[in-house]
């Protein structure tokens, strides 16, 4: 097992206006996730957020600390959310076993020293998508299956954005310091997510796209509402969204995405909506 990580630094909206396609992708796209027998982590200076993955095949994967954390173990001063997007898997937390089937979530609070990822069937391995944020206190570990999620129906087929929002790691379901995670599934015939677009200046966000059919793609939109940019994305890729940026997308087919966010605000509905007709 090998741990690989990289650091991404924050960029101002004025700087990003001048980025070309390669610079945008280098700064915001996470395109190396779901590598077998690897713990892959991207540490971003937007709210000190970490996004990553663990795919245990030949052996279990231990959640190891990384140098930027300056911590004795990964969750010494952090909390973590995990959603399984592969075969059945197990996450062991200080010896306690949590079984996660497809699209089940697990929240683990700070202070848990030993976290291990395992697949039940190595021919159909678990694929654990990971988000983590700094934490000031410990909250209990809790599993939230997809069936247990708070479900919100939004949009319509007429506007090509009929979707189900599955709130999993969020207030009212799980107590957290600042981390929130959930999953939005678009209905057949719908392709737009998070439209009307919005920004929320008191927290950042990461989108992770999955269930994109082979030979299809999603065009993710970012930037200030009057200075938008786009990044073309494939299955199992993620994108970092700064607090000043919209985060929306349109696919060549329907798909699913996992949203994760952190910041000083836990109010899910706190956002500044950008009118569709005013986007540039």
TrEMBL record:
Cofactor(s) needed: Zn(2+)
CDD domains (alphabetical): cupin_KduI_C, cupin_KduI_N
Co-factor note (free text): Binds 1 zinc ion per subunit.
InterPro entries according to UniProt: KduI, KduI/IolB_isomerase, KduI_N, RmlC-like_jellyroll, RmlC_Cupin_sf
GO MF, any single term: 4-deoxy-L-threo-5-hexosulose-uronate ketol-isomerase activity
Key words, A-Z: Isomerase, Metal-binding, Zinc
Pfam families, per the entry: KduI (PF04962)
Domain of life, per lineage: Bacteria
Identification of the protein by name: 4-deoxy-L-threo-5-hexosulose-uronate ketol-isomerase
Organism, scientific name: Jejuia pallidilutea
Lineage of the organism: Bacteria, Pseudomonadati, Bacteroidota, Flavobacteriia, Flavobacteriales
UniProt gene name: kduI
């Amino acid at each position: 097992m090998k741990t690989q990580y990289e650091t991404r630094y924050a960029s101002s909206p004025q700087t990003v206006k001048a980025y070309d396609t390669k610079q945008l992708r280098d700064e915001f796209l996470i395109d190396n996730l779901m590598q077998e027998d690897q713990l892959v982590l991207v540490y971003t200076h937007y709210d000190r957020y970490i996004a990553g993955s663990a795919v245990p095949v030949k052996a279990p994967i231990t959640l190891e600390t990384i140098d930027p954390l300056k911590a004795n173990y990964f969750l010494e001063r952090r909390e973590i959310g995990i959603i399984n997007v592969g075969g059945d898997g197990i996450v062991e937390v200080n010896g306690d076993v949590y079984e996660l089937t497809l699209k089940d979530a697990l929240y683990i609070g700070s202070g848990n020293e030993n976290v291990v990822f395992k697949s039940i069937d190595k021919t159909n391995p678990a694929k654990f998508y990971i988000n983590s944020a700094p934490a000031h206190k410990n909250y209990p570990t809790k599993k939230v299956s997809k069936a247990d999620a708070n479900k919100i129906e939004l949009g319509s087929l007429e506007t090509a954005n009929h979707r189900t929002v599955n709130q999993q790691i969020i207030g009212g379901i799980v107590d957290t310091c600042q981390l929130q995670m959930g999953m939005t599934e678009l209905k057949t015939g719908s392709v737009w997510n998070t439209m009307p677009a919005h920004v929320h200046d008191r927290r950042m966000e990461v989108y992770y796209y999955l269930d994109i059919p082979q030979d299809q793609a999603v065009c993710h939109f970012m930037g200030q509402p009057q200075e938008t940019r786009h990044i073309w994305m494939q299955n199992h890729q993620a994108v970092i969204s700064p607090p000043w940026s919209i985060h929306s997308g349109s696919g060549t087919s329907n798909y699913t995405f996992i949203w994760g966010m952190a910041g000083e605000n836990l109010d899910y509905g706190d956002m500044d909506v950008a009118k569709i007709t005013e986007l540039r």
